[in-house]
Amino acid sequence: VQLVESGGGLVQAGGSLRLSCAASGSTFSINAMGWYRQAPGKQRELVALISNRGGSINYADSVKGRFTISRDNAKNTMYLQMNSLKPEDTAVYYCNALTTNWAHPTYWGQGTQVTVSS
After folding, report:
1. What count of other Cβ atoms lies within 10 Å of the Cβ of residue 106?
2. Which residues lie below 8 Å from residue 26, measured CB to CB, with a gap of 6+?
3. Predicted confidence (pLDDT) per residue in 49-93, tens digit
4. Is the pLDDT of residue 104 over 90?
5. What is the end-to-end Cα distance of the chain in Å, rounded?
């Protein structure tokens, strides 16, 4: 499985961005997917998770009500709509996929930079 993020960039506080994560390869093995982020000097943290068919979604408290995770399995793509962005949302955002392949249960994308200016 290969994961490629896109959609990051520089935005002013209060603005919006939409991240995409395109999956390729053995996409049939993908189960849940998620977005994580890592700010400079901080540990990587979970932003949002979505189950295989989208029936179960979880958000970090810091993004609830502002971010929306979704996925289009027909396009093998996951999204993160980010509204009301704050400077503290500045980080590298990573796409993650959990698979049914016991030999390789998780995959990561290369990350996309999101910078929110005040």
Report:
1. 13
2. 1, 99, 101
3. 999 999 999 999 999 999 999 999 999 999 999 999 999 999 999
4. no
5. 37
Compute the radius of gyration of the chain from its Cα atoms: 14
- What CA–CA distance (Å, rounded) separates 18 from 1? 22
Instruction: Write down how long the chain is.
Output: 118
Burial of 33 (0-12, 13-18, 19+ CB in 10 A): buried
CA proximity to 84, closest of 3, 31, 12: 12
Q: Choose among 31, 22, 23: nearest CA to 52.
A: 31
Nearest to 15 by CA among 92, 87, 112: 87
